[in-house]
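Subject: Protein record for review, amino acid sequence with backbone structure tokens
Category: Structural biology, sequence-to-fold work with a learned token vocabulary.
Format: Residues in single-letter code; tokens as whole numbers, each standing for a residue.
Body of memo: The sequence and its backbone structure tokens, given next.
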Amino acid sequence: MKKIAAVLVVMVLAGCSGEPDSPSWVKGAQMDIEQDIRWDTDGTADCKRLVFSDRWFVMCRSSGKFGGLAYAVTEAANPRGFIAQPATGKAAQAAASFRASPVAGDMVRVDVDALRGAFEAAYR
């Protein structure tokens, strides 16, 4: 019991959130994308970040399942520090009304099923 308590204390002190460590611009992209989704849906957004095929991605869940909202995120020299590229048609449609997130018009080519599987495995 003492070991479990010690591990929990270390995790809290270390700021362990269950998400991979990432550059500040990736965390900013995740927060901005979540905010844009909240504005568009008047609801909640549950987005996570992950490196997949040597790129950072942000993918959002709905009803506990990762779905069609996925964005490749790249560092950029703009006020937000990043640019997001939709990875799915649904993400491109949602991004058309984004206010906070700078989004590139071109979709990134990625195996969406493999991407979804990687997020599901990382965030069980």
